Structures are given as structure tokens and as C-alpha cells.
Amino acid sequence: MNLLSVSHLNVNFQVKKQSLAALIDVSFTLNRGERIAIVGESGAGKSVLGFSIVNLIGKPGYIASGSIKLDNKELTTMNLRQLQEVRGKRIAMIFQDPMMTLNPVLSIGHQLVEIIRSHTKITYKDAKNIAIEKLHKVQIASPETRFNQYPHELSGGMRQRVIIASVLLLNPDIIIADEPTTALDVTIQAEILQLLLAICRDHGVALILISHDLGVVSKVAERTLVMYAGQIVEEGPTLEIINDPQHPYTQGLLNALPQMTLPGHRLNQIQGSMPPLSERPSGCAFHPRCPYATEACKQQQPKFIYSGVSSVACLMIENMIDEFDRDDPVQSDNVLEGER
């Protein structure tokens, strides 16, 4: 049984008298100890999906339909008390900016102890010992000293380590990390990613890493979901997606990486920009920016099909597979059509 199962999730934002779709028919599963990534440009719906999983979508956003199950228990219908048992204890979240999570007027130790004591009935002394142990676990030097310091006294990388320590306090089953290294320099980014990877491996914690950078994703995630305009457009093993991307959008994201450009040349970029919720194109949402778009792409919503070990929503790939089947019907059983 899957640890987490998201099925046909639709999230809308009510703007004046208009209901705008932010997530459309999103489905995926997560197994215990598995590490997956959700990638895409800003506005693709990655963070909305992360917040939806723990039901933290605030007004004007709301879950319109669909299912989110943790150990086969429906999260979308839980009341606040039930959700508080899930948040932090079963599913923990790491945000982009640690200063948005840490209270600037409370010491690090005070905040960590409060997290523990809000969920368990243990003494302050025991909670302090656990907090210091977790600070040591995330490789913070002199954790006893850091325990009494305030967030502004720590570097950005150190603050992010404190956040990771805080999510470990209650031994969660899943960590959702929303762009956890965006504000850090490259060296610290690598250290934080290695730390997350080690924690997941050592403790069997499942990870959902939200990122816009496929280079970052390749170092951590076993499986990747590529999102565009609120929909998953490609899903598969991370190495397969990086080495053989199927969807034109995934190809564009990879080509835009700095290492894909020769020194002294302009960086590659995907022409155009992510459409706002109020101006979602008909048919395939990516067609205004796609170099391979046809008239059919403007009218027809692509369905998910299996292409190799990945699944992709693209009419071009669908047509290529159809032609392959017609030319070589003996092999057609090897190409299965997936449904969401």
C-alpha cells in the first residue's frame, strides 16, 4: 500500500466571481522511504500542490475535488484537530525562507522545545536533550551554544539546518521540502541536499522535493514529476527524464541549465512565459511556447501515455507511438496507454 496517494486533485482560487484552476487532475503516489521531485517554473503549481497535501491552502484557494490519502486515511475531510496530528508529526514541511518559519524574538532552543512539547507530554529537560540531539544530527557545530541563540545570529545555511532539525523532532514519515536551497550559495546548497539525502536514507523518511532546477533534483530524487500550468506533463525515473526527456517542456527545462550552454554563449531559454490562471490556453497549455505545436495541440487536451519507462502528456509523442504501432503491430503490446 502506498504511504501517500493523491488522486485527481483539483485546486481552485476564487477571484471575485471567477473560479480559477491552479491544479488540474493531479495524481501521483509516494511509497515509504521514496524520494520524488516536483519540478517546473514559477507558477506551475508546485508549491500549491505541496500546501494542498497538508491542507494548508488558505482563502481564496480551496480544494475543489479529488483525494489525498495518507496510509489510506483521507486528509481532505479531516477537521483541524485531526490535521494537527498529521502536520509535523506525520508530514513535515521545509519552506524556502527559514526566517519565515523561525520566530525572530524566540531563541532556537525555545522554538524546538515548544514543537516537541506541543505534540508530546515530556519534561522540558527531555525535550531540550532531544532538540540538541537533532541539532547535532544536522551537523550544527556546538549545538548547546546554538540552542540559546536567536535566528538572526545564524547564517542562512545554519538557519536552514535548524529548520531541518525541527522537522526531525517528531520523526515524520514524509518531508515536503519547498525550494529548500534557493536562497543559499552553491556550496551550502550541496551540503543541505546531501544532508536531506542522508536523513531520508538513514531514517526511511519519504521526501517530496519541490524545485525549479533539474540539476538539483538529479542529486536527490529517484522519481520526478514535471508540472506545467497546474498539471503533471511528464513523470518517470529521474535519470530517465534527465537523459531522455519526452515532453518538449521538460526538454526546454534541461536545455536552460547553465551547463548545457558553451562558455561565452547566451543561455538557452524557453520562449514566452507561464500563463496566468485567468489566461490558461485551450488544448495543451504549453502549445503557445512549444516549437512542435500543431493545430491539434491548440484544441485537444493530451492524455497520459507510457513512453519507455516514463509517462507523458503530449500529442506529438502520442502520434509517434501510434505510427510505431501501425508500422510494427507485433511490438504494440510493449506500449501501454496509461489513464489518470
TrEMBL record:
Compartments in which it is found: Cell inner membrane
GO term, biological process aspect, one: transmembrane transport
Protein name: ABC transporter ATP-binding protein
Lineage: Bacteria, Pseudomonadati, Pseudomonadota, Gammaproteobacteria, Oceanospirillales
Membrane topology note: Peripheral membrane protein
NCBIfam families attached to this UniProt entry: oligo_HPY
Species for this entry: Marinomonas algarum
Superkingdom, natural source: Bacteria
Location of the ABC transporter domain: 6-254
Gene Ontology CC entries for this record: plasma membrane
Predominant localisation class: membrane
Keyword ATP-binding listed: yes
